[in-house]
Amino acid sequence: MDKCRGSSGILIIGAGLSGIVAATRLLQNNFKNVQILEAEDRIGGRIHTIPFADNVIDVGAQWCHGMQRNCVYEMVKDQDILHPTGDYYSTMKMVRSNKELVPHEVGSTMHDIVAGSMPSGPHPVVGSSGTHLAENFWRRIEAELPHVDRTLAREALDSFAKHESSIVGADNLFEVSVREHIEYHDCDGDKLLHWGTKGFQRFIRLLMNVGEDQPEDLGLLAGHVHLGKKVTRIELARPRKVILRCEDGDYFEADHVICTVSLGVLQEQHEKMFIPPLPPAKVNAIRSLNLGTVNKLFLEFEQQPLPDDWVGFYCFWLEQDLKELRKTEYSWLEGITGCHKTTCQPRLLMAWVGGSHGRHMETLSDEKVLEGLQWLFRKFLTFEVPAPKRFLRSKWFTNPNFRGSYSLRTTKADEHDTGPWDLETPVTGPDGHLGLLFAGEASSRNYFSTVHGAVEAGFREADRLIGLYSSCGPNS
Ligand SMILES: Cc1cc2nc3c(=O)[nH]c(=O)nc-3n(C[C@H](O)[C@H](O)[C@H](O)COP(=O)(O)OP(=O)(O)OC[C@H]3O[C@@H](n4cnc5c(N)ncnc54)[C@H](O)[C@@H]3O)c2cc1C
């Protein structure tokens, strides 16, 4: 029989960063009855730090992107725990599928041209990033590098576009709105600050006030987190109450619910999950924005297989090789943006695979993925890469609690005149009660897709409730 496991107060769905910061902020403001319901058997969501090789790896978020106006950086800047990654990606080798190394000077000039061809400034404000990039790139090649081999230039453009797609989380840049760069606010300063040998979970521990020697402790959140509680129904029907039903039959009552599940979960579940159905503007945003897939592949070796003076390499596919690849079972390798060493892990190689190829990779066995990677190494490199000692990869799309990696602004969202602001808008019950609030990275107007966006959104919704009760005190 169903059991009511709690009443009144505030329930937060999801113990990712948005849910964790919302809960800690509310508890620190004297809200006592705050509970988080989390479907997974761990906290952190798309931050997932696990032991691997010489210390830890981040299967999800890895870097703090920037310093100025970055709330994550602001919270830790006095503690000397964030470290610069350095000039990583711009020093990677560019290798063609016939094993030819692109001369550094030619490669970096083309890289600068292609990077400078991305939309910037307030114009243009219509169309896709892909169209804009291609037009600008060829115009600049004609003007600045008239004698460069056009075949090589095409390979450089494709490689950069793939890299950029994985940064914004898109299948390709033709689905990305040129407005992305206007609405997404870059935080100035180092974009690749990492957490040393502790990984991103160090930040979660700081938020919960947990020491280094208490790995299992939930600190401030002890007694406030229910793991393995998958919410299947959210009902706003009863006056001034919200009822949550879970997959295991438990149900909870609350005065307010903050929903932080990913855009992918909303896309898949919203029609069954919310009673009454969500307002049209929110459904429009859920259907028009996108949650892209970006996956990571980690290979641990006895010894680092790349030469000392290599950070990693980008794959430049010759047109004919690409045509042949697409006919084979290794076609998903087209989605590999590059392969490189990583900080604090001397024996590791890491590769990224995104978009539809990243989703396909998730359906393959570990053996098949490794076989493909070995094939790729043999295709591009003049030296041998031995079989790895250990292998691990993410599967963010397959996991029903995520259904992807991070959100992006699409051209479809432009056409449908919607964006994160429609995800952010709270939903009131029939009596006007502020019952259902939404956080999560995809609801952040200017920092969507990032951890600082998720944090900002969690604070935003906690502050909305703190503001609501500021005159009369919490109803809990
Ligand atoms: C591979 C990868 C690399 C990334 N790299 C970076 C990076 O370097 N820097 C950066 O800033 N950002 C990065 N990001 C993005 C960043 O991780 C996310 O934007 C952020 O962590 C999202 O936090 P969130 O709280 O909004 O959502 P989530 O972390 O997804 O939290 C939502 C929680 O809700 C739970 N949930 C879902 N459905 C239910 C349900 N029905 N009932 C109960 N609980 C449910 C989920 O299990 C999850 O724990 C990366 C993401 C990925 C996947």
Give an overview in words.
The chain has helices at 17-28, 71-76, 104-116, 129-144, 150-168, 180-183, 201-208, 263-273, 280-288, 319-326, 355-363, 366-380, 411-415, 420-424, 451-469, and strands at residues 10-13, 34-37, 49-52, 55-58, 83-84, 93-96, 193-194, 225-226, 231-235, 242-246, 251-254, 256-259, 274-275, 290-292, 294-300, 312-316, 336-342, 345-354, 390-393, 406-408, 427-428, 434-438. It has three domains: 10-47 and 198-290 and 410-469, 3-Layer(bba) Sandwich (FAD/NAD(P)-binding domain); 49-87 and 292-393, Alpha-Beta Complex (Polyamine Oxidase, Chain A, domain 2), CATH 3.90.660.10; 104-183. The longest helix is centred in the middle third of the chain and has 19 residues, at 150-168. By secondary structure, the chain is of the alpha/beta class. It is built from 15 helices and 22 strands. Helix 3 crosses helix 4. Residues 1-7 have low confidence and may be disordered. The chain is globular. Flavin-adenine dinucleotide (FAD) binds next to helix 1, strand 15 and helix 15. It comes from Drosophila rhopaloa (Fruit fly).
Q: Which cofactors or ions or other ligands sit in this model?
A: flavin-adenine dinucleotide
Count helical runs.
Answer: 15
Which architecture of the largest domain per CATH? 3-Layer(bba) Sandwich
Task: Predict the CATH topology of the largest domain.
Answer: FAD/NAD(P)-binding domain
Strand order of the largest sheet: 8-2-1-12-22-21
**Cα-atom radius of gyration:** 23 Å
CATH superfamily of the largest domain, called what? FAD/NAD(P)-binding domain
State the domain count. Answer: 3
